[in-house]
Amino acid sequence: MFKLPKSLDMQLTAVYLAPDIIPQGQIGQRFSLDFGIKKSIQKNKGELFINATDLLNTMQIKNIQSNDFKYVSTDYYETQVIRIGYNYKF
Fold first, then answer.
1. Which of 38, 37, 40 is nearest to 89 (CA)?
2. Separation CA 14–CA 35 (nearest Å)
């Protein structure tokens, strides 16, 4: 098993959204994969971090359908975000 140093934390998150019923019909399933890593510095008073959301760019609506029509497209939300930062605890 891979063991991280005590001053390093990592997190991997997967989000799945099942098909959804809306007034226009039904939206297909969607999912997202997020990742983050944090390193404690300055005797645990400071932290450097980087995290990213929707790594695979899969949080998108591909189709909406009902009995009367079918709308097919790929709508990309602005869900791919990368954050780099520093926190200091007083």
1. 40
2. 9
For 22-54, the pLDDT digits (tens) are: 887 788 888 899 999 999 999 989 999 999 999
Contact 11, 4 (CB under 8 A): no
| Confidence (pTM) | 0.71
Q: Which residues contact 2 (CB under 8 A, 6 or more apart)?
A: none
CA distances to 15, 22, 36, 43 from 51, in Å: 15, 32, 4, 22
What the block records as the tokens of 21 is 């019923």
Q: Tell me which amino acid residue 32 is.
A: S
Query: Are residues 35 and 51 in contact, defined by beta-carbon separation less than 8 angstroms?
Result: yes
**1 Cβ contact list (under 8 Å, min separation 6):** none
